[in-house]
Amino acid sequence: MIPVIISGGAGSRLWPVSRQSDPKPFLKLSDGKSLLQNTFTRSLDLKQSITSVITVTNEKLHFRMQDEYQQVNDSNVSCDFILEPFGRNTAPAVIAASLFSAEHYGEDEIMLVLPADHLISDQSAFIKAVADAVAMAEEGYLVTFGINPEYPETGYGYIEADKDSAVQNGYVVKRFVEKPNFELASEYVSSGNYQWNSGMFCGKVKTFLAEFNLYAPNVVKQVERCLVSSEKSNIQKNKIIHLDPQTFIHAENISVDYALFEKTDKAAVIPCSIGWSDIGSWLSIAQTLPQDVDGNAIIGDTILHNTKDCLVYSTDRIVATVDINNLVIVDTPDALLVANKEQTQDVKHIFERLKKLQHPTSDLHQTVHRPWGTYTVVEEGPFYKIKRIEVKPGQALSNQLHDKRSEHWVVVDGEATVIQDDKVIKLIENQSTYIPAGEKHRLMNASDETLVIIEVQCGNYLGEDDIQRFDDLYGRS
Q1: Quick one: pLDDT at residue 205?
Q2: Which listed residue, 61, 148, 223, 368, has the most CB atoms within 10 A of its CB?
Q3: Sequence ranges of the domains in the chain
């Protein structure tokens, strides 16, 4: 089996934790693991022989995801990446994964397609559902996982099962239904013939390709052309494809449901109850967390007084509440959300307004992840910016220069190797160096410990785009 993890979208309803360049899959819940890490480990815990894990995601998220996997990849399974320059919906992503799997692992492999940002609390039920799906896939079906509905939800699509056409422990799909109004959703739930569409799929590689060629041949051709033009590389045993933007732009922006599942006669559904949630809003997060005696769901450092039925989420500092109820409070270092608990779907409107204003809190957090480590903006003014920079052991920033700013570096922990023009300088704690504007420089960590420096930038322009890269370990030059 090949798990294929699909990661796209900003998770706008989970702002301010989810951002454009730091999206929902990186959201950490009470177990300390991100949604992405839980998806990855869930796929490795299946009672199947895992050939590889393929992730289809945005180019900018590659190294962050690689780091997330390394933290939980105890079995050392290979992690392949198909990197998109921009999103084109799920059909091109699944076609690219199918073509990639056929080339490298064979058409008889079974793909299990999983969104990166879902929560499944009943792993044993999930394992059973996947085993049933594999048995159906061996018979030539493309299997969807239908979640037995617990209430009339209007935010999900539905799948109607043909109860007269049983296959293994599932059914042939009768039809897919768009998100209904409340009255229709109530009818669907009471009928017992409908399940929520989870967006998870299973099938043989050759079945996916045959059906895509039958019902979406143009999309297949567009993705095939793109793969021929795309840059391919390897990091150890992991295969990486950087999809070519000039050809990928021509791939139709269409979902798997529209391109394939609503048309094929090979679609089947397994009704299951696996503790599933798509974590689509702060309300859905509150519903998945343990609650105190007053109905409060808490993540982080909090003190609550006379507070009931609230979600309080703090990433960095203590949050105190007095005499409130039915609220969502989400605190991050640079943004605070306070919302009515029943209206958390509308957080997306805040995100869209921030995006339209090009406000930085729509895109990045104060701590920004890079392939070599992280930087955190500590303070910023008109002509200066102060950063805390962490460089992982054995990693290095690019050889670069800035036209419009100078930089002062002070080592506060670890040992730095600094290249300034042709000079090599070693710095330890409490030592510093100055890099004037226009001078080539590079920061490296050759030690086995994390390097921490404080960087003070001075200049009349301090944007991240004031950079010329001459050499880079991560292909960004």
Answers
A1: 98
A2: 223
A3: 2-277, 297-353, 367-471
